[in-house]
Every structure is written in structure tokens, then in C-alpha cells.
Amino acid sequence: MARPRGQRGQVKLHGANWLFVYYLAGKRTHVTLAPYTLYPFRDDEKGREQVREQFTDKISELLRPANADVPSAPLLDGLLTAWSSLSHNVTGSDANNASNLRVRTT
Fold first, then answer.
1. With contact defined as beta carbons under 8 Å apart, do 58 and 33 qualify?
2. CB-based contact 29:21 (threshold 8 Å)
């Protein structure tokens, strides 16, 4: 199973505006960040990253509810470490049951 990841969203130039596109509650959402005339960066990877840097706070605020259900990396690392130490310290007949351990986050 792959590690769940929070979404970053997408910064893109659409017409005369910089947009931020992300998914919220399963629906694609578009938010206008600013007019292109105020932030005339090129429409390439570097330019989109510059716009993302300019609006880091606003983007973080928009993504907070979208990523609320995604466990944080430190939490997952702690759970994986605990599971790993449990599975390596089990011997004998319990070793067969070690593969049945499941970690559930709620």
C-alpha cells in the first residue's frame, strides 16, 4: 500500500489570471490567485513555482481542509517504526501472527 500524500494543487495561467486548481470533497476547485498583469511570470515550470512562492500562505490555507484527513509524515513514520520493532521482536509461533498486524489511523 502506498503512503497517503497530501495534494499540492496546481498553479496555472488561464487567460489573464493565475489560478490555483485542487480537489475539495472530490470536486475540482478553481481559485483565482491574481491577475497576470500583477505577476507577469512566464507560463513555464519556473514561472509557476515563482507564483506558488508568492502565494504560499493562501495556497496553504486553501489546502488545509483538503488535506485534513491525510496523516502527517511524522505520525506515519512513528507508526511504521512501532510496527517494524514489533514485527522484528516476535519469535516462535507469534512470528506467524506478526504479518497479521494492522495499523489503523482514524
1. yes
2. yes
- In contact, 21 and 30? CB cutoff 8 Å: yes
CA 74 to chain centroid, in Å, comes to: 14
Find residue 21's DSSP bridge partners.
10, 30
User: Which segments in the chain show pLDDT lower than 50?
Assistant: 1
Task: Give the model's pLDDT for residue 94.
Answer: 54
Distance between CA 99 and CA 21 in Å, rounded? 40
Sheet holding 27-35, edge to edge: 10-14, 17-24, 27-35
Task: Tell me how far apart the alpha carbons of residues 80 and 35 are, in angstroms, rounded to a whole number.
Answer: 44
Same structural domain, 42 and 75: no
> Are 55 and 76 in the same domain?
no
